[in-house]
Amino acid sequence: MSSIVFGITFDARDAKAAATFWASALGRNVADGATETAAAVEADPAISGSRIGFRQVPEDKTVKNRMHFDLVTGEFDAEVGRLTSLGATKLNEVNSGLHYATFADPDGNEFDLIAR
Predict the structure, then answer these.
(1) What is the pLDDT of residue 60?
(2) What is the rounded CA–CA span in Å between residue 56 and residue 80?
(3) Which of 11, 52, 72, 108 has its CA 20 to 30 A from that of 36?
(4) Residues 15, 56: contact at Cβ < 8 Å?
(5) DSSP H helix total and E strand total for the chain
(6) How are beta strands 51-56 and 38-41 bridged, if at all?
(7) Strand partners, 104
(8) Average pLDDT, stretch 3-11?
(9) Taken in order 67, 73, 79, 80, is the CA torsion positive or negative?
């Protein structure tokens, strides 16, 4: 017997706001029934396990993530602008062989944007 990945869930101060940011960032929709306490980004039907859930927790994020998303783009500068306009904060940028930037989403969770 084995298990399959249904999705991934993140803690958030406001689950609906977090889901709204990530749905916009990934070009998906927020699942019906989203509230401040529980929300999800709809799965991509072509990708098993691609549901992203959010659950409200009372405390703020205080340490570095143990897991994060790596996003890839062919239009790096434009995507940096789009993500920051959605509410992400650019934390740093590295351009030494691999070109990428690290961001924080509105809840402070880090993620990377990698130039293709």
Answers:
(1) 85
(2) 27
(3) 72
(4) yes
(5) 2, 7
(6) antiparallel
(7) 89, 110
(8) 91
(9) positive
